[in-house]
Amino acid sequence: MKKAVIIMTVLAFTTSLSAMDLYSAVDLAFKSDPQFLRDKNLLDKQKELINQARAPLMPNIFISGSYADTENSTSTNTNTKNMGITLSQTIFDRQKFLNLDQSQLNLEVAQLNFLISKEQTILRIVDAYFSILIAQNNLITIEAEKDAVKEQLEFAKRNFEVGTSTITDQQEAQARFDLIRASEIRANNNLAIARTNLEKSLLVVLPDNLLGINKKIKLEKPELSVPREWMQIARDNNLNVKIARVRTKLATLELKKRKIARIPSLNLSLSANNSTIDSTASITQDVKTATLSISAPIYSGGSISASERQAISELKREENTLEFEMLNADRLAGKSFRTFIAGLSQVEALEAAEESSKVALESNKLGYEVGVRINIDVLNAQRQLFSTQRDLAVARYEVLKAKLELLSAVGDLDLSAVEDVSKIISDSN
Q1: Which residue, 20, 241, 324, 365, has fewest beta-carbon neighbours within 10 Å?
Q2: What is the rounded CA–CA span in Å between residue 104 and residue 413?
């Protein structure tokens, strides 16, 4: 029975993998990628730190008890029993309240870091997934080129046998064929490496073939056409900038804590204690105590002033870090936008070049058949066509990746964006 369940599970899992697309790969990474799950654990850890920071502000209850059996030289035994309970409550301690505020800000930082981890996971899986698609396309193109060159080689051999071409045509075709075979070996190896990289992140065996882009895709230009507009959005919404802002608030609270270090703290303690002594006579005593204590540091060797100066330096450092992150977000958004726009133009140019290369190849083949072109002309036209097709495939995936990188730069990359890209790829099949 157990074996049957395992077989059914494997079959169901294999069936789902056979239809894996980009969206399902990223979604699977959120469930299985060790690097992402590690970052998720860090967020869970930070959530508990808030409870730890809140604990000193909540009532604290302690119980105590002891039992002693004493025998002295007069052979008199004395039994002493003590039981007590103590409740303590912070009435006023500004530093503890600021610690709680800081823990909440630290949780906000952890949540933002988790969002960054999600973005990085998306981009990492997309990059690995596209590397496989590019490697697949390269292999397909090389195999098609090898078949075309092989056909041209056979054609050159026949022409040489009947005396309509020289041995040079055959040798050139043979040399080109041998080079393509070497390229095919390299392409197979690159594909195997790319597949392994993604499988190690998803912890699954990928299907034999992943569906890539097979025809023209339509990509819309972004509504905002000026780089500066994207740069401004990034300065406001980039996740690293948001973290830097929160860290500046943390440093401000830390400085405030250092400045109020000499402010007194007020604590209340309530205790009840029961003591029973059994000796020649039994004595029971109940003691109830209420204590209101106030404490304030007067001098601690200069550490308070030193820590205040340290907090001032740390605040300045975080302010400079914020400025740096905004400038970096500026640069990243501008670069991603320009890469995306240039990529769109490059795809259009390569699509036109592909059509022109096809026409040029047919013209060279016809010219070779009628004797106005030589074999090397046909081989060069073939190489140009297949090289253009490889470049076009890479350009299409690069422009899709640039679109996601632009969304990441402005803090707006999520699974819905991946779903849109995945749909563009599936619609091209």
Answers
A1: 324
A2: 25
